[in-house]
Amino acid sequence: MSRTVLVLTATGTTGAAAVHALAGQGATVRAATRDPGKASFPDGVEAVRFDLDDPTTWPAALAGVDALYLCTPPFRTDEVEVVTALIHAAVEAGVSRIIKLSARGVEADPTSGHRRLELVIEGAGVSWIHLRPTFFHENFIEFYGGSIQAQGSIFLPAGTGETAFVAASDIGDLAAAALLSDRSGEVWEITGPESLDHAAIAAQLTEVLGRPIQYVDITPEQHIEALRGYGANEVAVATMSGLYAMVRAGWTAGAVDTVQRELGRPAVSFRDWAAAHAGAWG
Question: Of 42, 193, 253, 274, which one's alpha carbon is 20 to 30 angstroms from that of 94?
Fold first, then answer.
C-alpha cells in the first residue's frame, strides 16, 4: 500500500534521519520546514512549508497525508495545547497514523507533556506507535561539542549514572519502519547497545580523538547557572535539571533490543558513532 508521510522537524536531528530513511525505502515523503527554499532533502522528497506557530500553514502540509511523524521543538510552555490542536487538525485532514517521538520513562510521569500528548493520540481514533528513545549520541556534538573541542571536557551533573545512549540514525530508521508499518498500539523504547557513564564516554572519545577528554561532574546548581547563562528558558532549565537527576539516580541505564528486533541489525555503538563523526570535534 502506498503511503504519504509528513515528517515534522525535517531538518532536525531525528526528523532528518527519518526523512533519509523513508526516502531510502521509496516512500512518498513530505518534509516539513519553515523555509522550504533553504532546506536540502534527498531527491524525491517534497519540502513543504510548516510552522507550528502558524496554524494557517497546517492544512496545505497535511492535505493528502496518511501518516505523520510527530516531533516538535522542545521546551515550550504551550506544548500540550498547540500540539493537541495539531493532532486534531491532522485527524480532520485524514491522517490515519501518527508516530510520536516521545522519551523513555514518560509513563512514570503523568505530568509530562510527552505522556499527555501520547494519551491524546491514543484517543484520537488513529493507529499509532510511540517511540521512546533515551539520550542521543548527537548530544555530544550539538550540546556539548563546544566544550569538548575547546576545553577537552564534558561538564554535566550526571554523577556516575549510566545511560544507554542511542544514535539518531537508529531512531530515524525505526521511525520509518513504524510509519510504514500497519501495526498499532505499541510502545518502542529505543536505546543503544550498552549503558555508559560519562567517564566512559570521555574515555572512548579520548581513544577516538587521540587527545585527552575528561568528564567533569559539576553540581546541579552549576548546571542550572550554566543553562541560564546560555539563555535557556525556565522550562528548559527545569526539564534538563530533571533529566540529569534521573541520570544520577540510575534511571536511564539499561539497554533494550528494539533496534535489533525491528531492524534486524545491532544498534550503533557510541564508539563507532564517535569514530564516524570525529571531525565534528576538530
Answer: 42
CA contacts within 13 A on the Cβ side of 271:
9
Length of the chain (residues): 282
Say if 237 falls within a structural domain.
no
For residue 129, being part of any structural domain is answered with: yes
| Parent domain of 75 | 4-135+167-191+255-267
| CATH (domain of 262) | 3.40.50.720
1 falls in which pLDDT band (50, 70, 90)?
low
**Structural domains counted in the chain:** 1
Count CB atoms within 10 A of the CB of residue 200.
Answer: 16
The residues that bridge with 47 in the sheet, in sequence order, are: 31
Q: pLDDT tens digit string along 230-269?
A: 999 999 999 999 999 999 999 999 999 999 999 999 999 9
Going by C-beta distance under 8 Å and a sequence separation of 6 or more, which residues neighbour residue 219? 157
